[in-house]
Here is the input.
Amino acid sequence: MKIAQIAPLAERVPPKLYGGTERIVSYLTEELVRQGHDVTLFASGDSLTTARLVPCSDMALRLDPAVEDYVPYHIVMLDAVRRRADDFDVLHFHIDLWHYPLVRDFADRTVTTLHGRLDLPDLKPLYTVFSEIPLVSVSDAQREPMPPVTWVGTVHHGLPRDLLPYVARPQGDYLAFLGRISPEKRPDRAIEIAVRAGLPLRIAAKVDRVDRAYWHDVIAPMIEAHPNVRFLGEIGEGEKATFLGNARALLFPIDWPEPFGLAMIEAMACGTPVIAFRHGSVPEVVMDGVSGFIVDSVEEAVHAVRRIGMLDRSRVRASFESRFTAEHMALRYVSIYRALPGLRAAAEGRRRDGGDVGLQVVA
Here is the structure.
């Protein structure tokens, strides 16, 4: 199958540091190639892939000091995609809503994975107009705020099976927080939980420009007040294995409708259980009492920290392997691709003409 993957340009694929969407695009692209598909990746020019790369900017826009506005670069990329659209059986978009007006005449062989939150009021009029665009959610919970649209599936994120090694006996005795410093991620809760549980907390997180006031006014003073709390900043892929694998647990104390939460399955891949608040995708990802604990308050989270030793880290890893590998993710997407009306129509046309359908899944 000839597949186009269209990625955001803010980060390279895969990102050097933070960047959940670009990371998933990379894992999916590489696994599709491994399964034998002909994949073309539209992404920043510094991206690393075994697929055919179409560079749409010199480098990740977030890392280019000369770039102030991301919009022009995405418009140029969409023009390149539009001109080459007939080269592909399926076009898979990961750029939210930019492409909808451009793909209407071939929307039936496109898939758009929505990676972000969907409870914003301005999205409803948009999706009322573009209700025919085939959409994939990354959790069932993510769909709840949306008007009637064309959902073609839910696909949970997946990681390469060997990306993060299983750690049976962690060398550290700390709690971990991984992600962004932002009000909805609630690092303040993580600090409170760790302090009340009497354990060190290590925070590996980025601070976006929009969250700098929150960092300076709320989080930095809390860190200064508690010597057992260490802020490590942004960490790269190579550092995650040690950071997550040696933690007693990952704290995921969110206060928003999290669409998925990649940090949860990264921790699970290491065998590290997750203590997460019951919002968004959490009940779909964490198996309560197996791969972690789902809580509704700081008090419950502190109690869960004290019970974390009851969990078997091998079962945490097994939960990851059975549900959240890149192989599972790619096979699910291929199933969705094959069911698209435009793809089925093309296959039927080739059968009538006596040609090779060429749309079989290569496992």
